[in-house]
């Protein structure tokens, strides 16, 4: 059955078409590339120079099962098909590997006037980054 | 601190982990800061820097390196009786760093002190992201279930457990919060501690 699924990642949400069965959530190779950057090649799933065998993550029509893709690329996936939503997390190793270098990860966020600021705009200054909340 | 040090090649960037800009607005408008004061409804910075509570501060040098990892520091002593933290300790260290470059941590020590996220924690953040998206869609019951799962996967992360309360119509200063921190303490955990050699 083809359904509309909202694919939620850390930074955005994209509505995609998916073929849903009991154990698989299949999307086109093009959708995978648009939402994750990974492409499907004869070698398997590829990102830049890295390729990993796709195993049964790609079916005979070239469609990709998101659940197998998440397992093979070692990232969290939370599915809530009742709500038509899938959350695809950041690869398990990625955040830790980045912090391990002590290079401050860049980000871009709005202020109250919806003006966007990136951390990297302030390169060349010493920065106190302070997170707080009203709660 | 910003006014005092802004001409010394220094800036402050604040990030509010609030459910929308309106929650953060009164705080920002009251402080009327001249430095960037950003709104982070999806807790992206908590994810990138593995922050687990507020307030969290860290220092980044001119070339974009973290030189003082995640730590607890308050802007002033309004809450000192409750928290036991003296805001002046961090202010003095910050002033020394900006003016003289002097810093208590070697790069190696900074790296040791910077906590990295576990697999369960990454799973929790994917649950939180789904809950936050469902909440934005007005699907509150479904959102609640994912916030609860996220908190179970990462019981030490109060940006998830407490930070989701305003989206679950739970008072983040109310009895549920006090029960939460009491249970956390009774299971042998410190609630929120500064770095050991700060």
Q: Key terms for this structure?
A:
heterodimer, A: 135 residues, alpha+beta, 6-stranded mixed β-sheet, 3-stranded antiparallel β-sheet, 12 strands, 18% helix, globular, B: 198 residues, mainly alpha, Glutaredoxin, 2 domains, two-stranded parallel sheet, two-stranded antiparallel sheet, 10 helices
Total count of strands of chain A: 12
Q: For the largest beta sheet of chain B, what order do the strands appear in spatially? A: 1-2
Order of helices and strands of chain B: HEHEHEEHHHHHHH
Number of helical segments of chain A?
A: 3
The assembly state of the depicted protein chains is heterodimer
| Helix-strand category of chain B | mainly alpha
User: Which band does the percent of strand residues of chain B land in?
Assistant: 5-15%
Helix/strand class of chain A: alpha+beta
Percent range for β-strand residues of chain A: 35-45%
What is the overall number of helices of chain B? Answer: 10
What integer is the average pLDDT of chain A? 95
Question: Could you give the distance between the termini of chain A?
Answer: 43 Å
What's the story with the biggest beta sheet of chain B?
2 strands, parallel
The chain pair forming the largest interface, with residue counts per chain, is:
A-B, 50 and 81 residues
Following the backbone from N to C, one meets helices and strands of chain A in this order, namely EEEHEEEEHEEHEEE
Distance between the termini of chain B: 18 Å
Q: Tell me the strand order in the biggest sheet of chain A.
A: 7-3-2-1-9-8
CATH superfamily of the largest domain in chain B: Glutaredoxin
CATH architecture of the largest domain in chain B: 3-Layer(aba) Sandwich
Q: What do you see in this structure?
A:
The complex is a heterodimer of chains A (135) and B (198). Chain A has helices spanning 29-36, 66-72, 92-100; strands at 2-8, 13-20, 25-27, 39-41, 44-47, 50-52, 64-65, 77-80, 85-88, 108-110, 116-118, 126-132. Chain A has 135 residues and is of the alpha+beta class. Chain A has a domain at 2-94. Chain A has a 6-stranded mixed sheet with strand order 7-3-2-1-9-8. In chain A, a hairpin with a 2-residue loop joins strand 5 (44-47) and strand 6. The longest helix of chain A is centred in the last third of the chain and has 9 residues, at 92-100. Chain B is mainly alpha-helical. Chain B has 2 domains: 2-113, Glutaredoxin, CATH 3.40.30.10; 119-186. Chain B contains 10 helices and 4 strands. Chain B has a two-stranded parallel ribbon. In chain B, strand 3 (56-60) and strand 4 form a beta hairpin. The longest helix of chain B has 18 residues, at 119-136. At the A-B interface, strand 8, strand 9, helix 3 and strand 12 of A face strand 1, helix 2, strand 2, helix 3 and strand 3 of B. Strand 12 of chain A pairs parallel with strand 1 of chain B, so a sheet runs across the interface.
């Amino acid at each position: 059955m083809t359904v509309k699924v909202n694919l939620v990642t850390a930074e955005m949400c994209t509505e995609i078409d998916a073929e849903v069965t009991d154990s698989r959530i299949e999307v086109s190779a093009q959708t995978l590339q648009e939402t994750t950057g990974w492409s499907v090649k004869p070698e398997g799933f590829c990102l830049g120079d890295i390729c990993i065998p796709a195993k049964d993550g790609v079916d005979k029509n070239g469609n990709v099962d998101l659940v197998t893709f998440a397992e093979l690329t070692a990232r969290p996936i939370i599915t809530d098909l009742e709500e038509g939503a899938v959350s695809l997390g950041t690869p398990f190793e990625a955040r830790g590997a980045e912090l391990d270098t002590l290079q401050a990860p860049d980000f871009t966020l709005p202020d109250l006037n919806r003006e966007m600021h990136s951390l990297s705009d302030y390169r060349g200054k010493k920065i106190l980054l302070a997170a707080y909340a009203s709660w | 601190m910003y006014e005092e040090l802004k001409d010394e090649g220094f800036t402050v960037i604040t990030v509010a982990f609030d459910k929308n800009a309106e929650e953060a607005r009164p705080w920002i408008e009251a402080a009327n800061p001249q430095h960037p004061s950003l709104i982070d409804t999806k807790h992206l910075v908590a994810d990138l820097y593995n922050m687990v509570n507020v307030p969290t501060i860290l220092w980044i040098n001119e070339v974009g390196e973290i030189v003082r990892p995640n730590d607890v520091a308050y802007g002033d002593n309004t809450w000192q009786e409750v928290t036991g933290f003296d805001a002046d300790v961090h202010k003095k260290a910050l002033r020394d760093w900006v003016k003289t470059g002097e810093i208590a941590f070697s790069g190696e020590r900074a790296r040791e002190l910077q906590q990295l996220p576990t697999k369960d924690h990454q799973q929790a953040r994917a649950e939180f992201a789904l809950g936050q998206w469902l909440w934005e869609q007005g699907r509150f019951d479904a959102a609640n279930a994912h916030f609860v799962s996220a908190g179970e996967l990462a019981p030490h992360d109060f940006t998830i457990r407490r930070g989701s309360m305003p989206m679950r119509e739970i008072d983040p200063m109310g009895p549920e919060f006090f029960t939460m921190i009491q249970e956390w303490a009774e299971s042998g955990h410190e609630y929120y501690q500064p770095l050991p050699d700060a």
